[in-house]
Amino acid sequence: MKNTFLGSLYLMLASSIWGGMYVVVKVVVSVIPPLELVWLRYLIALVALLVIGLATRQKWRIRKRDLPLILAIGTIGNAISIVAQETGTMLSSAQMGAMITGSTPAFMVLFARLLLKERLTLRKGISIGFATLGVLLIAGVGHVDVSSQRGGGWLLVAALTWALMSVLVKRVPSDYSPVVVTTYATLTAILLLTPFVLPRLHEIHFSTLTTPSIGGGLLYLGIISTAGGFLLWNRGLQLLNASSGGLFFFFQPVVGSLLGWLILDETIGFAFWAGSFLILLGVLFVIKEK
Length: 290
Hints:
Order of helices and strands: HHHHHHHHHHHH
Distance between the termini: 7 Å
Structural class: mainly alpha
Number of domains: 1
Number of helices: 12
Largest sheet: none
Strand content: under 5%
Radius of gyration: 18 Å
């Protein structure tokens, strides 16, 4: 029961952090293009992770047989998924970004069944049903304009790849620290993105990084959202099974929509509160599952 509570808490915190991330990305991506933004936030995150790793005296050695798995996590989750996510957020609203990537838990259940042979219980099915209905209520139906459809496609790619990465994390041997796994995955993403980013760095007006909104947004994305969020997510997945853990991803649309309303003047109404209640109900089903 203690592991269930702690795992739930870690995943809830990570998902809430990422829900707020959509609003920050919406502001920063207006100045820094998505690919360059991902690269910069990973550089900041890598420094933060190395500091944490050195302070906690982590063991950095990775066994040769486990290296392909770590590289796959970094490539699929840290590189492809995050670039797709921020591109989609740029082309759509913060609310849509949180909503579509909120479909990740359903894909996690599918991948967990295929790769981990996890059993889909009736309780999990009900939980996903409640939470999915909550997301649909929050987002509304029939309100997606044509200009946002491309963004929706990118966000769908982000949801699929993040779900696959989250299930792959469950296959990482438990003797590896989340700090070590997250650090190597982040480094993998940086190495993959660097050849594409370096020729375009001159297009960024670095003077804008000194402004509070852009500079502060970058620090939030690098330290809090990337280093902190990834650590919490990976640790939470170690304590829960993948399909149950995915339910906590539904906190993203709640926090993303709420902050989009408070900061970006995006509209929410009764459906938001009703959807949030259904999401919370679905998550409570998982927490109470033995």
